[in-house]
Amino acid sequence: MATFLHRVGRWAFRRRRTVVLVWVAVLAAVFLGASSAPEAPEDSSSLPGIESQQAFDLINERFPGAEADGAEARIVFVAERGQQVTSAAGRSAIGELVEAVADGPQVADAASPFEANAVSKDKSTAYATVTYKVASDDLTDASKTDLTKAVEQARDAGLTVEVGGSALETEAAQGVGEVLGVLVAAVVLLITFGSLAAAGLPLLTAILGVSISLAGITALSSAFGFSSTVGELAMMLGLAVGIDYSLFVVSRYREERAKGHQPQEATALAVGTAGSAVVFAGLTVVIALLGLSVVGVPMLSKMGIGSAGAVMVGVLIALTAVPALLGFWPNAVLSRRDRKDGPRSRAKILSLVGRTRSAGTTTKAPRGVCWAQFVVRRPLPVLLLSVIGLGALAVPSLDLRMGMPGDEAKSTATTERRAYDALAEGFGPGFNGPLTVVVDVKEAKDPQAAVTAVSDKLTGTKGVVSVSPARFNEAKDTAVIAAVPSTAPASQQTQDLVHTIRSERSAVEQATGADLKVTGTTALNIDVGQKMQDALIPYLAVVVGLAFLLLMLVFRSILVPLKAALGFLLSVGAALGAIVTVFQQGHGAGLFGVDETGPIMSTMPIFLVGIVFGLAMDYQVFLVSRIREAHIHGERPNQAIVTGFRHSAQVVGAAALIMMAVFGGFMTGGESLVKMVGFGLASAVFFDAFVVRMAFVPAVLALLGKRAWWLPRRLDRLMPRVDVEGEALTQQVSAPNDLPTDDPRASVTV
Fold it and tell me: Is 29 helix (H, G, I), strand (E, B) or coil?
């Protein structure tokens, strides 16, 4: 692997104009394809295999023209204190609103609160439900304007009117996530490298990769069903890994130049060594992302495929475009001191420093070296502290409640949240999460009696406060009933109620011949959470298993991949615990602009596991490969740890800060779910990079010693050698100090 990539790096350096032109042509081609591609499809909420989805599909089939996921507006009317909505003025204003909205061409039904028994007991609150024939994204501006005008007219009549539902859903305030992430990354790179060119090159190549990936996803959106969400995740991951992969190659190039190698030689060595780590780190990320297909959720599968493509583009750019650009500016990426003194002089200085140290004179070691020396001297206390600390942070994750936060998680400045609160106060906490029961009476002898029996059974179920009249379709073979729980949508009691209704339906089905299913937003959230929970263990087994084999191939060890997997579980557990602490329990929520706590997004745990596993393996490969490189070149285990940290600790820390900046930047948006994703990923990267990789990993390696690199002989003979450390290159590359600066042999021959 190292020898092949060495040739790639040398070729890209020599043919730099060709390489750059090819990437520019690729960018132009994908942009051309994106500009002529059909419009991207909307995010699909289809979740095959769960009861809620089956019920939605049945509604769409039996009630043509009124989709189960069509837009809905729930208009809430609240009378002034001491007044009632049933007054003559209130009735008139509400009636005019319903009549005005009902005439809309996209409206399927508009029910007056006085006809639908939608008035609270104290008559202070009422609501009108408007259902549309199309989804909220397909609502025309005219339909939205009609609804808005009608609401304003009712407000002018003296009523407090708020609108919930999806028809007029308020757009979340846009943050400065991507811009903030790039700015912080630029500062980190500038501090790390001390050169504008060295800081700008990773940013330039990362932006190139993200542009190609986003344009490619747009061009393929119609063929593969990629939605805008796929592009958002691909942009977030592509930007983070694109900067990091280029960062590692540029850092290794500067290191090789400091040793005295000429630009072409240093570039080839950087791609042959750091590039090998980039390839295998990228493969672990791709494995984790493609593994999302195991979950069985089409949306997650597409997000994984699109993001995996963005990661692969980042890998290819790091292996080709980065060495090509280094060919254009071979000295600009060096530090100011190296540009002034020259790499050859710098190498001589380093050699003199080494001899001075051996003579007994002490010099200040880098912080990474000092930390590594501290860890190898006290590995057990460091190991215990890191495990206990991360374990304590993970404890709140045991209280994890999964769901899909709705209007209750929005800011009180939105009309949706005010409508939610008004309905909960006027009708009870469960009113915002009604259960939709779909009754299929196609096989029933007496359809009307069967539906009546189902309604009676629901009315008598503990935890149900009200049951709506059944609504039949035109064929009279399917009915829909709404059952309102007594508890809030996200509560455990409501979840138990859904399970109770489903467990007791067999008796009704046997007695009447009707087939009933429970759906609605509340039931859907419960089913999705259960599906995610059931899929988590198989997903972990597939991803961790494949990555274990890949890392065993890279490091030729059994214990090192095992240690990597255990460290990953610690970091993910701590990140989940932090998410639960802030977004569910509310501790420190105000610091992150979280207006309301609630359940954790159902897809968050498995989403976090997939992405963080791949990113964590990035640091594992980059850091441990340098330690193994020093070890196979003859250094003792503890000294190899120190050497590995000398060359990679600062760069790994910078890479982690960049990823945290990119992910944390998404917390500046107004959407609670986006904040949750950004917070979860940023905290997971922090725990993995600065606790697991910087403390847990060196402590375990120090305790294991030579045993860390143990591999059974038979397995060693069967496994192919990939040579990530570039051991073969040391036998082919002449020592730089043996050649004069202008010697033509300074260009590497393989």
Answer: helix
